[in-house]
Amino acid sequence: MSRELVNEICAAQPGAEWSDPWGGGHDCWKVGGKIFAMVGTVGTHLSVKTDSIEMATLLIETGVAERARYLHRSWVALPLDAAPDEIAHRIRHSYRLVRAGLTRKAQAALPPL
Asked: Which keywords belong to this entry (predicted)?
């Protein structure tokens, strides 16, 4: 999957916003000001949130993902050449997790799912 396709999937999530908070060419996707997906400047991996450290460990141990550098242990880095349906699923899941963690007020300000 290409970086452009990842960006299309992320942009399709209700209320998603793109930024490059550190400069240098990051694709950082946020909902309600919180990151749900990110591709670094090198652009070989997509970092997404999982629902737990245990799930992240399982994905890493089964070879689906790697540990996402610089992020909490519940985040994983999927290679961009992974199966497109797996990447799309992980982006949508990460988005829903992050959105659900927002305050009620922040959630109410977003477009409906």
From this structure: DNA-binding
